[in-house]
Specification:
By secondary structure, this protein is of the alpha+beta class. 60% of the residues lie in helices and 12% in strands. It is globular and about 45 Å long.
């Protein structure tokens, strides 16, 4: 649909702009860690999942007055090259839907 295309284009454009700005800010950085602009070469999925579950539980408590515990099961230390904020947002949205 038109809205899907619009939002996909908006996300892509926003990412490219933020990536360009981040790369310019990191220019000449000797100690940039695992980041290349917005992309973390070693995004720890279990850490992002814990942060997302905490945020989703907090939102659920604010709206509904209570929230169930969330157990994160799986291997710790799994990493991938990705934008941590995008993974976080996706996990929060999935968890919010599950906590309703």
């Amino acid at each position: 649909t038109a809205l899907d295309k619009f939002f996909s284009n908006r996300i892509g454009t926003s990412f490219l702009i933020r990536q360009h700005i981040s790369l310019r800010e990191l220019e000449g950085c000797d100690d940039c860690g695992n980041y290349i602009g917005l992309i973390n070469r070693q995004t720890d999925l279990s850490e992002v999942a814990r942060d997302a579950s905490s945020t989703a539980r907090h939102l659920c408590e604010m709206i509904h007055g209570d929230a169930p515990e969330i157990d994160i099961v799986g291997s710790r230390g799994r990493t991938l090259a990705h934008v941590p904020s995008h993974v976080f947002y996706m996990m929060v949205e999935l968890l919010k839907n599950s906590l309703r």
